[in-house]
Amino acid sequence: MNMKSCICGKPQPFAKCCDRFLSYNQTARTPEQLMRSRFSAYALGGYGEYLISTWLPASAKGLSILDLSKKTVDWQRLKVISSFQQGDNGMVEFKAWFCASMSFDEMEIMHEVSEFVRIQSRWLYVGGRVN
Which residues have a Cβ under 8 Å from the Cβ of 26 and sit 6 or more positions away? Predict the structure, then answer.
């Protein structure tokens, strides 16, 4: 990890960017902050508890902390295309580059539009449409 920029692509160091959310020191103030911290959680692996805690419970049925903690792909890069917030609803469109197999270098791109909802001052991931 580059000390000059976070895993999520922001220019701040990880400790001042996504780590503050992953360590539960702060909660995301915007849907984009939550999405970026969730990307970092997937990229690092081992953060299944964080991922479940930031998922709308009704949308997270059948998911387990153990499964979400596994690093199944090698997430390389994130680019936020747009983000939108109106009241307690939000949306983030992004592209994420990854290698599906840890042994291959062939890069793939996931293009998603994620939906978020704010409940009791906490943003939660509802789900996403993959394009």
Answer: 20
